[in-house]
Amino acid sequence: MKKIAFFDTKPYDRTWFDILAKHYEIAYFEEKLNRHTATLTDGFDAVCAFVNDRVDAAAIDRMHRCGVQLLALRCAGFSNVDMQAAAGKLRVVRVPAYSPHAVAEHTMGLLLTLNRRLHRAYIRTRDFNFSIVGLTGIDLYKKTVGIIGTGRIGRAFAEICRGFGMRVLAYDKYPAPDFEYVSLDTLLRESDVISLHCPLSEESYHMLDRKAFDKMKKGVFLLNTSRGALIDSEALLDALNNGTLRGAGLDVYEEEAKFFFEDHSDTAVQDDTLALLISRPNVILTAHQAFLTEEALYNIAEVTVQNLDDFFAGKPLKNEVCIRCAGN
């Protein structure tokens, strides 16, 4: 029976893996995978990691020496993996799509909450304060939403927006059918809502910086359920302060690996930018939970287990990520 080391484990992770991966011997570790915890992989055939595990060259070298053959990411993104270092040492597979609708629906939830101040209304009525002063929103009908990245999640979000009667603009290096594509500058200039659905790369890092915010119209909503480092957080704060942004709905943060998926309620968080964002009444920050539906958790487990099965059976790996693979 092949042995799998499973890192950054939460109770919801085990629900489907315990059912679908019974033919593997799995050791669940609560610790995140990094160059230090990689020592725990000694004697394991494969490692299952998540989005905020730090799989750098040192971690890869340690796993390689421990005999690990495969890194199975139970997420779509792989920017946390040093793919250059993995070449020739570890095969890397991922789950390219588990529930685009889960993330798209969460994105719309952030927008609706921001726009209609649902979070503030909830707090007021819990205190028996039934005033509606300061809770005015806008009609989304006939407003323009700019979607950056038209992969499966971006397309799902576009369909939701069209259902609200919104005009959809799109920007993507690889256009898909049924979208009105424009330049990034045009999208920034014309959109009432901007939503990020693109992967993080050297090219997309801080794609929304001060120059980008300066091109936006006043009063735009910004949504990010993709990767935190797509946005320059300091520039984001400035855009909130000067009124460029009406509000920001964020499920990700560029320094989230230090905080997300853990309870820090009894500690003083040593990140002034994060603290300032959370303190803003027109910012909704969720802890990278956009994917978290029952359907998505099942799909993640199913595809991850299939990736493991294919590798150990010597079959082609359709979800492999490598620096020499076409499309990666």
UniProtKB/TrEMBL annotation:
Name the domain of life this protein comes from: Bacteria
> What InterPro entries has UniProt attached to this entry?
D-isomer_2_OHA_DH_cat_dom (IPR006139), D-isomer_DH_CS (IPR029753), D-isomer_DH_CS1 (IPR029752), D-isomer_DH_NAD-bd (IPR006140), D-LDH-like (IPR058205), NAD(P)-bd_dom_sf (IPR036291)
D-isomer specific 2-hydroxyacid dehydrogenase NAD-binding domain residues:
108-290
Q: Which PROSITE patterns match?
A: D_2_HYDROXYACID_DH_1 (PS00065), D_2_HYDROXYACID_DH_2 (PS00670), D_2_HYDROXYACID_DH_3 (PS00671)
Supply the Pfam families for this chain.
2-Hacid_dh, 2-Hacid_dh_C
- Asked if the record carries the keyword NAD, the reply is yes
Does the record bear NAD in its keywords? Answer: yes
**Alphabetized UniProt keyword annotations:** NAD, Oxidoreductase
The D-isomer specific 2-hydroxyacid dehydrogenase catalytic domain covers which part of the protein?
6-321
| Molecular functions per Gene Ontology | D-lactate dehydrogenase (NAD+) activity; NAD binding
The entry assigns this protein to a family as follows: Belongs to the D-isomer specific 2-hydroxyacid dehydrogenase family.
Name of this chain's protein = 2-hydroxyacid dehydrogenase
Q: What is the lineage of its organism?
A: Bacteria, Bacillati, Bacillota, Clostridia, Eubacteriales
